[in-house]
Amino acid sequence: MFITLEGPDGSGKTRQIHPLADFLTEQGYEVFCGREPGDTFIGEQIRQVLMDHQNKGMHPRTETLLFCAARAQLVEEIIRPHLAQGHVVLLDRYADSTLAYQGYGHQNDLGLIRKLLDFATGNLWPDLTILLDIKPEVGLRRRQEGGGEWNRMDAYQLQYHERVRNGYLKMVAAEPQRWRVVNADQSPDVVQSELRDLLLSYLSNLS
């Protein structure tokens, strides 16, 4: 089972995913919990390049290809082997992030990006994707006030982040069978509770 968390910056994915993975483990599932880009030696190097403020001159096509390169490595080195063993793979971001950020955000050709993503992932898409939805201005304020990572992409203009969020909502509307939406503008405990209930319901219906 391949499950991804998506959402605008500051939606709380990174804060929520590890307690969620621990909860699923307690329920008896074998879980791999990871993030994008990263989790492989190659992917972590690419992440440093992507997030570094010194790389403000990076072209959107360069950005897109780097994310896809890190993802291709993650799919073949980690995700597919875990899925082959029957594990639950729980990932903080995946291919939908590229559609949202490099597609809708940068206003690039969505059809071309989808083809690139199919190539990079070997046509591997999640079984379930949960959108932690939050208004961009709220999420970005959280990032600034939280003292965590403030990277090159966080610093894009608000209009860019608004396009990203709207892109996510369009993807939800286009593929409702795969997507679920959780309001991330709630307390972390409430969001975690809703995530747990959602996953337990989803997984139990598969049994």
Automatic annotation (TrEMBL):
Any Pfam family hit: Thymidylate_kin
Binding site for ATP: 7-14
Keyword Transferase attached: yes
Keyword annotations of the record: ATP-binding, Kinase, Nucleotide biosynthesis, Nucleotide-binding, Transferase
Keyword ATP-binding: yes
Cross-referenced PROSITE patterns: THYMIDYLATE_KINASE
InterPro entries: P-loop_NTPase, Thymidylate_kin-like_dom, Thymidylate_kin_CS, Thymidylate_kinase
Domain of life: Bacteria
Signal peptide positions on this chain: none
Catalytic activities: dTMP + ATP = dTDP + ADP
EC class of the enzyme, as a word: transferase
Domain Thymidylate kinase-like: 5-194
A single GO molecular function term of this UniProt record: ATP binding
One cellular component term from this protein's GO annotations in UniProt: cytosol
GO process terms (BP): dTDP biosynthetic process; dTTP biosynthetic process; dUDP biosynthetic process
Enzyme Commission number(s) of this protein: 2.7.4.9
Function: Phosphorylation of dTMP to form dTDP in both de novo and salvage pathways of dTTP synthesis.
Family note: Belongs to the thymidylate kinase family.
Name listed for the protein in its UniProt record: Thymidylate kinase
Originating species: Pelolinea submarina
